[in-house]
Amino acid sequence: MKNSLGGVDTVLLLGGRSEIGLAVVARLVRGGARRVVLALRDAEHAVPPDLPAEVHLLEFDAARPQTHPGVIEAAAGLVGDLDVVIGAFGVLGRQGDYDADPAAAAADVVVNFAGHVSAGLSAARRLREQGHGTLVVLSSVAGVRVRRANFVYGSAKAGLDGFAQGLRDSLHGTGARVLLVRPGFVRGRMTAGMRPAPLSSTPGQVADAVVAALRSGRDSTVWVPKLLGPVFTALTLLPRAAWRRLPR
């Protein structure tokens, strides 16, 4: 349960190696969270991060949706009610590789979209039963309007973004909520070697925005940085012919 001051006490991170996810967790622990569950692949051989909190590791595979309800329940069994559940798993493939290997494209879409649907519905059921808690969904500006340069990845994020909005509406009035996060280009391990896009950010900056939104206590959509909100509002109005000419 939340602590006596209404702060976050328990956190579940789905995608326990995510730079953004771990940055959010670290900030929540500094803010008073005492119990953390990191769900990740090969949990048996993972090394827990050095956090001043009770940390548990659970096996989690985004590509095995049949296991996701059990992961959520196992996490609750370890720490009790889940105050915050963060969905921070995914893969960033290259469009050229997907063009050459459609099966690989489909496999990555399973992780980037279907895995979040299964894990998100499982988490939402738990939060609804508790009557409180927040599911943080890490979407992307890549899904707001899909570019030809990364349209497989972008289309999966577009699906995830729509799923998060619908799930938020379905939970309205239950005490549970959904925080939808739309970062732009994030400079980190996943994007190493890539040229940063304009208005890029760091995992820490995304985490700061997430924690600030969690403290607000409202259902919301968070753009990181904030300026991307009006920028993409304008870009969605750009004629298709002009959109196609954007650099790859």
Tell the overall outline. Answer: globular
Alpha carbon gyration radius:
18 Å
Structural class: alpha/beta
Helical segment tally?
Answer: 8
- Mean pLDDT comes to 93
What string, H for helix and E for strand, traces the elements in order? Answer: EHEEHEHHEHEHEHH
End-to-end Cα distance, whole Å, is 47 Å
Strands in their spatial order, largest beta sheet: 3-2-1-4-5-6-7
Tally the beta strands. 7
The fraction of residues in strands falls at 15-25%
Q: What does the largest sheet look like?
A: 7 strands, parallel
Any low-confidence stretches, pLDDT <50, length ≥5?
Answer: none
Task: Give the proportion of residues in helices.
Answer: 40-55%
Could you provide a short overview of the structure?
This protein is α/β, with parallel strands linked by helices and 248 residues long.
